[in-house]
Amino acid sequence: MSRSLTKPLPRGCLDLHQRKVYERGARLRPAIGKPSVAKEKAMSHVNTSRRGFLVKAAMLSAVPFIAPALVGQARAQELKPLPLDNPQAKALAYALDYKTVQHPAFKPDSNCANCQFFTAATGACTLFPGFSVPAEAWCSAWAKKAG
Fold first, then answer.
1. Residue 89: what pLDDT?
2. How far apart are CA 60 and CA 51, in angstroms?
3. C-alpha count within 13 angstroms, C-beta hemisphere, residue 4
4. pLDDT, tens digit, 9 for 90 and up, residues 86-118
């Protein structure tokens, strides 16, 4: 391979392909040197010891036990009692005590406690979302709980 004497090769250019490109007059990329000082420091401080691994593994395995104590537990929002002036309650002839009901649709011993729409654990009724009703209440939509 012949090299033009008028063009000296740039410093650090050792690759045969780069020499050919340079001789044709194309611009060369800067030579790839050593990694930056920050990169060298970061790479030299990597802890690869067994002790370091075990410490990190122990800390990670403790996270599921410690996190709930730090975060707390999620709780359902408390339901407000259903007011008697609620439009839905008025439309269904809602009463707080089933013993005082004088409605044509009333059946003896029908109350929220034995209605399919009532959830005893929360006091919620699917007919009145966002409100709680007492187990002794009654409305005209009462339907006997299955079972």
1. 92
2. 14
3. 11
4. 999 999 999 999 998 999 989 988 999 999 999
The residue behind tokens 């005590």 is 97
CA atoms within 13 A on the CB side of 15: 9
- To which residue do tokens 């780069």 refer? 18
Cβ atoms within 10 Å of 21's Cβ, excluding its own: 15
Reported as a pLDDT band with limits 50, 70 and 90, residue 36 is low
Answer whether 94's CB lies under 8 Å from 84's CB. yes
- Please tell me the distance from the alpha carbon of residue 84 to that of residue 139, in angstroms, as a whole number: 11
Write out the two tokens for 49. Answer: 């010891």
113/121 Cα distance (integer angstroms): 11
Model pTM? Answer: 0.48
Q: What domains can you pick out in the chain, each with its CATH number?
A: 80-132 (4.10.490.10)
User: For 100-103, which contacts have Cβ atoms below 8 Å and span 24 or more sequence positions?
Assistant: 101/138, 103/140
DSSP state of 10: P
What is the C-alpha to C-alpha distance for residues 11 and 85, in angstroms, rounded to an integer?
Answer: 91
The rounded Cα 90 to chain-centroid distance in angstroms is: 40
